[in-house]
Specification:
Layout lengths: L9 E6 L21 H9 L7 E6 L6 H9 L3 E4 L5 H11 L4 E6 L7 H13 L4 E3 L14 E4 H10 L3 H5 L3 H5 L6 E3 L18 H16 L8 H10 L12
């Protein structure tokens, strides 16, 4: 008997650790006097109307203990797993908390839009894809609004099929490389205005500066938490020079 979606446990798993080759400790760097990158991301994800659980999946490295503290502060769940095998970390976290459906979010994207998230969840539950995602080569969504949704059964298949370190490090890369094995849908919004070089993920210092500048304007507009991608796009339209901060980065 097929379990109805309403009875299924749907959780967000945020992969998070303090180590970063390009910008170490970036997820706990300040966006403003109140919020760090990870704080803002969590507060925004809590706006989702369809998510049952939010889980931070980190590692036992001592420097990541502060991430455990962040989870406690925000009253969300935390899982400690493999440092290098992120796929295993995801799989074990999903299994530990009995998730039927997993939303994958990375911790360096504090502007992820909960409205887009809920729209994608609704789409997922009405269709029968193994995997949906909203960032590919033709997506209208800018970098930094990445969302992936898949079932635990799909994650289990990936976990057992993945053999290389690359596949184990990047969680869903096997799905994307073997579309004949999985039913995949690339979610898009054709009504979004496209900005080719718009980067709202944090890999470099310039990215963080960009996020801070936009967030300052969002607060001035009275939207410190409940802003949308469209709000961000309007700020870019009003202040196109902002894109010069990090558009040279890849």
């Amino acid at each position: 008997m097929r379990i109805m979606f309403a009875k299924k446990k749907l959780g967000i798993i945020i992969q998070a650790r303090m180590g970063s080759t390009r910008l170490p400790g970036k997820i706990l760097m300040k966006i403003d006097e109140k919020y760090r990158v990870l704080d803002l991301l969590i507060e925004r994800l809590k706006l989702s109307k369809l998510v049952n659980k939010i889980i931070i999946a980190t590692t036992p490295d001592e420097k990541n203990s502060v991430i455990v503290d962040v989870a406690k502060t925000h009253n969300i769940l935390c899982f400690i797993g493999s440092e290098e095998n992120v796929l295993e970390r995801y799989y074990e976290a999903a299994k530990t908390f009995n998730l039927d459906i997993i939303v994958r979010i990375t911790s360096d994207c504090p502007f992820v839009d909960p409205e887009i998230l809920d729209d994608m969840i609704e789409f997922y539950k009405k269709n029968k894809y193994d995997y949906i995602m909203n960032l590919d080569t033709v997506s209208n969504f800018p970098a930094g609004f990445d969302i992936e949704i898949f079932s635990f059964n799909t994650l289990k298949r990936v976990f057992h099929l993945s053999k290389t370190n690359y596949e184990k490090e990047h969680v869903t890369i096997l799905i994307q490389h073997y579309p004949n094995y999985f039913s995949i849908f690339f979610y898009n919004d054709n009504h979004l205005k496209v900005f080719k070089d718009l980067r709202l993920t944090i890999d470099y210092e310039e990215d963080l500066i960009m996020i801070r500048e936009i967030y300052k304007i969002l607060k001035e507009k009275g939207k410190p938490i409940n802003f949308t991608l469209q709000d961000v796009i309007e700020i870019i339209e009003e202040n196109p020079a902002l894109m010069n901060i990090n558009k040279h980065l890849i």
